[in-house]
Amino acid sequence: MAASQTESSIDLNPRTLLLELMQGFRGLYGRAIVCLFVFTVINYLTPLVASATIDFALSQKPGTDFLTSWIIGILGGAERVTENLWMPALVMVGLTILAGVFSYGKDRFAALASDGVARQLKDRLYNHLQRLPARYHDRAETGDLIQRCTSDVETLRLALANQVVAVSNSILLLLTVIPIMVILDLRMALISFTLIIPIIFFGYFYINRVKHLFREVDEAEGEVTRVVQENLTGVRVVRAFARQDFEIEKFAKPNQEYRDRSLHLLKLMAWYWSTSDLVVLFQQGLTLFSGIYFIANGSLTVGTLFAFLMFLNMLLWPVRQMGRTLTELGKSIVALSRIGEILSEHREVNSSDSITPEKRAAGAVTVKNLSFSYGDGGPILDDISFEIEPGETLAIVGPSGSGKTTIMNLLLRLYDYSEGSILIDGREMETLDREWVRSQFSIVMQEPFLYSKTIGENIRLSESKSDDDEVYAAASLADIHHTISNFTAGYSTLVGERGVTLSGGQRQRVALARAMLQKTPFLLLDDALSALDAETEATILEALRSRHGKRTTLVIAHRLSTLAHADKIIVLENGKIVQSGNHEALRNAPGLYQRLWEIQTTTENEAGA
Questions:
Q1: pLDDT in tens, 584-601
Q2: How far is CA 53 from its chain centroid?
């Protein structure tokens, strides 16, 4: 049995993941909270100064609470304040400026912390995605992954920058303003809080009821991103088949779904905001009219009412914003859970007994009784066995779906087998370090991937320290050097996304040059010459023959004429080896290879007639 391809995952629930992400930034959040506390205290002092001035200096009706008396004492007494009204005004201006400084501090520290968390999270996500097994990427949708790594991370960043501070502010307000209001006047405090507590509980139950809608909106947006990404990737196919109208209609459905879900959520939030605003305004009106009544019967001063209205306004603002705060927090929880789903996926790791040989492989491969299937599907490979000696060339032939590319994938350890054995230089492959195994192979795929860089950078992809002469030599072996030299910018020519500015044959040859530049003991060619004309193919095959014996080469090809130089050929059909031998022997022996040879020869003769 093969070793497990993946490590055990950690169940990352949103709370655990959030605490883990914030570990390195708690100091910044601590500074933000300190600034918030000082900002809150200063904000409380400002209305108290105004209240004391109104009662002691203007109305000549000193209040009974010690807070206003203490403030007037600091200012030099009621008589001095009355004669110098500019003093409390100047103090209030100074307090406002100081509050602004600490407000800036809390926002700055919170922003630094949230940006740091977002950067760290993006790095972690990208690193994790690089190490997830091929099976995960087979089923994952690229658009949805992009959505989670960008939009969901941004949602979390905004919540950490704004809503964490907003929630802390609300808690501080509740913990500090209640005692102050009680000290000023118990009756007014009770009246002022008549409807605030119910609206808080209302908001809590509301967010629990609509939380699932945030995930639905996120998923709908992810589907829109997926459709756009798929369309842009295949835009030339769309144009070639004149499918623009079809693609527009295809996009309209998920876009309409996203719009409908977003609108439904916005309607519910608008209903909540309007209801809470109505209750908040009613609370302000109740406090104002109650205060006027108490002033009329002489049991409350104007300054105290002014202070209550100021405190209430300070307290009601976060309450009025609680709908938005809860909404953003709900979105961030959903975003965090979607991010956690990626980070909880099993990562591709080595088995516990993996070893890393100190030298490069000699180039021998032995496959014994190998069977493999993808998931719950039927077997792709069924009990196949073959050997390759160092420096030999093995060709693999067979109909589409017979398992040719699967063999390449298993040799690269993109998938791990559960039955049979693959030996590299006599060592079981899955006891070897996974990265070391892949570093021994150079591969050229039928549809090679080129980065949106220069041709030279694409060729140097795995050998960045290679000098120009080595790059030119590799390009010459791939019969692409002359073509590149004729470009205006030569090897500095940008190839565009996925190498789109090059023809199919040019992309294959650039990829072949990249593989030839790598100094690896194994070369895998997965139908790598399919886009080339016969003359170019012959030139490249001759170059490969000249290097025969220097690298162990595995070739997948449908054009049998390209396999004449192979030392061994195995013929696959329905996941089994039905024939093996060299080109001459198989061409003259009854079987699948002979039938394919006769079909291709007849077709070529008719085309040349």
A1: 899 888 989 888 888 878
A2: 57
